[in-house]
Amino acid sequence: MTVNVVLPLPLDQAYTYRVPEALVGAAQAGARVLVPFRNRRLTGIIVGEGPAAETLDFDVKAVLDVLDDVPVCTEGLLDLTKWIADYYVCPWGEALKAVLPAGTTVETEHRLTRTDAAPDAWADHEVGRTVLEDLAAHGETTLAAVRKRVGPAVPLALIRRMAADDVVAVETTLSDERVAPKTETHLRFAPAFQHKDAPDDLIEQLRGNKQRAVVRALAGFRAEGTPEPRRTDVMERADASYSTVRSLVEKGMLELVEKEVMRSPLDDLPAPDPPPDHDLLPAQQDALDAVTDAVDAHRYGTFLLHGITGSGKTEVYIRALQAVRARGRTGIILVPEIALTPQTVQRFRAHFGDEIAVLHSQMNMGERYDAWRRLRTGEAAIAIGPRSAVLAPLEDLGLIVVDEEHEASYKQFDPAPRYHARDVAVMRAHRADAVCILGSATPSLESTMNARWGKYERLELPERVPDASGKTAALPDVRVLDLALQRKKHQLDGALADPLREAIRTRVDRGEQTILLQNRRGYAPVLECEDCGWAPECQSCSVSLTLHRHDGGEQLRCHYCGYAARVPRQCPECGGRDIHQIGTGTQRVEAELEEVVPDATILRMDRDTTREKHGHHDLLRRFENGADILLGTQMIAKGLDFSRVTLVGVVDADVGLLFPDFRAEERTFQLLTQVAGRAGRTRELAGEVILQTRNPDHMALRYAQEHDYEGFAEEALAERRELGYPPFGHVATVEFRGPDEDRVERLAENWTEQLRQHAGPAGVMGPEPAFIQRVKKQHRYRTLLKVRGGSPGPLQTALRRTRDAHGAPPNGYHVAVDVDTQDVL
DNA sequence: AGCACGCCGACT
DNA sequence: GTCGGCGTGCTC
């Protein structure tokens, strides 16, 4: 018997392996296998039965091992990844890799050790010397680890030659699976001592006090209904050490049992309160009925749930999911970024408890693996998480919810597959005869058009949900502050104009809360020499360094690679001492607020303050407990619901408009509408929103001010239609990356040239240097592809043909194909 | 991807 | 002559 195996490499083909007699039973489609491949060993996935070995004109190698008894990949997921590979023009192996939890692949590994031999011969070999230095600094490591630190250009051949010289030792082994079920040791009486009176007999027979205490403790646990308690619990109760337990085990009286436990990072978060049950609004009920009808009919359908902020979308998701669970089927909830939507996640946990497996971007490998395993074994029936949760290993899927479906974070970029989780969700639901709900207050223009074209069914929630007293909060008043005008009136000194300052002051005095959005972190985004215009740039990226303040000190930091530098006192170009701080980040706003409202409690929430595991959670809890102001980047704009927030301020509404991206105004409109929705959720306290801008007439601001989604969509769609941009066409980009600028450019020219020949009806623009030309010392070029009409087929065909014709780029150079690009930069 | 092979220029 | 750069082709 043979099987076809797909490997997690950018190879567009399956390889056939013979299955030894002993492994035939386990070798099912979807299972991981360890296979020989050239001169290494890799973990691959069986995708199906292969042709008979005799019919093949090459030597068929044998599978070395089957690594799963239950296949990691269900039949449905196998198909889905094939679709992803076809649609997003990526190798099947890369798409398959996305469904495997991290750390579950085994492969050949080269372990390196430095020997005592004097490395004289390698002192002037540059790479060789660097490797030896790295080895000296890190002790024993693997070749992969060395490459990660030193750079990819460390050939195995070089290591072999160094080994021949005896300056290093190489051992080639298989890596361990880096994740495994976590076990705990439990304790029980040995079979001969399990009868009721055994403990008393034992206590009589034993001499040591500690040993008796252990037996007594274990008997106590048994009496409480825990016949196999954790070893550590017994030791603690008996105040005994492990050696006491061990001697009892050696005497054959007790036994140790290894039990699997699940690591769950949410255990240390407080369990949410059970929610009050209340009636749905008519619109919510209608939406729910439409969804449950489809669920009942076991029929595919995608519903675009367009509900204004505060209209109770989550309640509809929850009830729909209850209906699905009542029929014994499973569900997936996608949220844009789980750390940012703790309130949504907690509401699901309150309703579904242990049925939910939360997949969290801040979870470690073991925790993710456990969550994944609970889903795979059916122990959990609902997955909630960010985009990768769309590939959760669930069977008999009934519902996929995509919350805030317009969010750009649903598009994966690096590594491949570059899929859009919303579109994969629709496709997965379709193949599973399941229902998909796309929810948003500001749907993407794509989804709005798909609803108009009848591909999705549109459901509207036009009203906010009333509170317990029956009052409904009105949408907040939105005031646009023209900064140019403010300056003229001498009402602008710093980042916050006087009217916004006054509004904040009033809220603090009244004990109400304020949310302030400034979509840039750090203190000042740019420094500039007043005399010659010099501005500090990152040495690895073509971006200016951002000034950060911390504990009284200052530092320059690159937001792309993390490079940090000291703040120059003097311009290195002209020696000038007048170095100005230009622009405003969250830290600078924070400093200004401390002067404006010195008595207020201010919480700053951005990537710098939420780095720790429960950072978001802690900050939000402190805000809930009554801080005055929550200031932050766009992470504060989503899904937060605090009843005492009566003011939302946007320090600079124009930040997103500066990007040369056809989606810039859509993004800005969405962000402003979302953040405005955080205000006035209290029923008795009216909300106010203040937007500061230098473009008061910009359409995105105008429509956000009026809460006019339809108006915005009309105008934006007309423009997209004219230009043939999505949803009236498709775009794809090809990004070229590598260490040498000229070579990247040549590669890009070459590739694009061939692409033009295969383009057919598609338009090819470029190549040109990327918006940010250099990131982490990699130069970047970019080519844009565009086609009118509903099908991305011509783009995909052109990309596939070009990739096949062009072959692999040179070592160290990358060609990244991205279909349905979100950031066209 | 990662590696071997094989081709060229510049050094002992 | 050979070391090491880089393009090319292959992995069941």
UniProtKB/TrEMBL annotation:
Q: How is the cofactor bound?
A: Binds 2 zinc ions per subunit.
**Annotated source species:** Salinibacter ruber
Q: Which residues bind Zn(2+) 1?
A: 529, 532, 571, 574
Quote the subunit structure annotation: Component of the replication restart primosome.
HAMAP family per record: PriA
* Alphabetized InterPro entries for the sequence: DEAD/DEAH_box_helicase_dom, Helicase_ATP-bd, Helicase_C-like, P-loop_NTPase, PriA, PriA_3primeBD, PriA_3primeBD_sf, PriA_C
Q: Name one GO molecular function term.
A: ATP binding
Q: Which reaction does it catalyse?
A: Couples ATP hydrolysis with the unwinding of duplex DNA by translocating in the 3'-5' direction; ATP + H2O = ADP + phosphate + H(+)
Protein name in the entry: Replication restart protein PriA
* Protein family (similarity comment): Belongs to the helicase family. PriA subfamily.
Which biological process annotations from GO are given for this protein? Answer: DNA recombination; DNA replication initiation; DNA replication, synthesis of primer; double-strand break repair
Annotated residues that bind Zn(2+) 2 are located at 538, 541, 558, 561
Cofactor(s) it depends on: Zn(2+)
**Enzyme Commission number(s) from the entry:** 5.6.2.4
Keywords from UniProt, A to Z, are: ATP-binding, DNA replication, DNA-binding, Helicase, Hydrolase, Isomerase, Metal-binding, Nucleotide-binding, Primosome, Zinc
Instruction: Give the GO cellular component terms, alphabetically.
Output: primosome complex
Q: What class of enzyme is it?
A: isomerase
Instruction: State what this protein does.
Output: Initiates the restart of stalled replication forks, which reloads the replicative helicase on sites other than the origin of replication. Recognizes and binds to abandoned replication forks and remodels them to uncover a helicase loading site. Promotes assembly of the primosome at these replication forks.
